[in-house]
User: Fold this.
Amino acid sequence: MDTLFEQTRALAPAPVPWAGLRVAVLIPCYNEAVAIPKVVADFRGVLPGATVYVYDNNSCDGTAAAAVSAGAVVRREWQQGKGHVIRRGFADIEADVYVLVDGDDTYDASAAPQMVRLLIEENLDMVTGRRVSEDADAAAAAYRRGHRFGNRALTGIVRSVFGARVSDMLSGYRVFSRRFVKSFPALSSGFEIETEVTVHALELGLPVGEVPTRYKERPAGSLSKLRTWTDGARILRTIAVLVRQERPLQVFSWAAAILLIAGLAVGLPVIWEFSKTGLVPKLPSAVLATGLVLLSFLSFSCGMILDSVARGRKELRRLAYLAIATPARPAD
Assistant:
């Protein structure tokens, strides 16, 4: 009898780790009527029981109707920009696990179960879909060389400042815990939201992971909304702002060091001349050197003060994160 029971149990499908948990798939969309039906169908298929939300961001090509026909819950965000959409979705949707993916059918839906499983089993707060492609021609078509270079460069900057735990900072394919979503401020308005998400996780020391996922070309008729140079500049600006906000002592210390070196370069010849002759023939240089040195000490003092403020903000964000209980996992 026991043997028959064990055989029957072995033949039964293994329960998915998210059984009993609320899983939400959030898909920001702007004019993706061509691709969105397949994206919705794919994620409904690989994540049974999940609710698929499509946020229509002022589309004019029937995206909303196509998403409804495919079985998605459609909501609207009137402020234009991916950051606005994600901020609205994170605020409105109540779930235990959040899957964020673009609606252009460039990400592989079959990787979602593995990403969700990793998040739950390892108790992570963010899992990133790291984009890979086995075919060089397909990779070139889907992921342009300029975009790949920009991603590596921008990711390298963030890794050097905040920690080397993410290798594809600009990936639009993520899985989040409820703790992360409900404690994330989401201040960006456009494509720089991925940078803000990554820095938030790294700066608070949240547990994160990565899963390689196939990245493919857009379907025919779907056009990219990414503006290479404009959005790249905005992302670079966002990184600079986040570095200044999160690491002010480093930023102002570098400024202080530069000002001090400049002040010494201008002032040492004046001091040398005064030690020999007792005269200050270059009074403007002496005044300039004094000003530069004073600005150097002032910059360092500002860095010290702002570092204390940044630490306080970081502690508040950490407390907000810890105030959110983790969902109770179903019994095995």
